[in-house]
Known about the structure:
Elements: H1 2-52, E1 65-68, E2 74-82, E3 85-98, E4 101-110, E5 115-122, H2 136-139, H3 168-185
Antiparallel strand pairs: 1-2, 2-3, 3-4, 4-5
Amino acid sequence: xxxxxxxxxxxxxxxxxxxxxxxxxxxxxxxxxxxxxxxxxxxxxxxxxxxxxxxxxxxxxxxxxxxxxxxxxxxxxxxxxxxxxxxxxxxxxxxxxxxxxxxxxxxxxxxxxxxxxxxxxxxxxxxxxxxxxxxxxxxxxxxxxxxxxxxxxxxxxxxxxxxxxxxxxxxxxxxxxxxxxxxxxxxxxxxxxxxxxxxxxxxxxxxxxxxx
Length: 212
């Protein structure tokens, strides 16, 4: 009996030591990789902002603020400035209505609401079909359009957007994400051109719910 008890204690001690060593190793790996991972995420974000608003010389990430969507969450807004003058916003937006789940976009807007460009950050749509939302042939049709007078719905739903053949659901989700960005950014007011150096406090405006 004593031998069995001794073996049990040794086994418990060994497992405890192994767990402690494993935990220490995981903590070390986390600390080592944390910095590079954060840097990679930041670089990806800055690259996306530069894609959707090419001509700025401030650091939009350091001036980022959030606005409520009206659906119980919020979007990250990145103000872009040129020599201190506000020239537009990059909005990190999303839709949960993709064919295979969430779609995440970075959408660039001028201060009057006109869409500059769009970058697809994340999507898991069907290869060769829904994945075409990231291709210029589809997403470039939005550049230069203002959702105030351009209906962000696919033509099948009565809008003005040319859907991707055999990928209507993905096309709708893209439009939904873009509409969410526009409505959140310009909620409660008519967009107007401004060149002020300070970022307007858009959070004080009444939120307009995203259209279905």
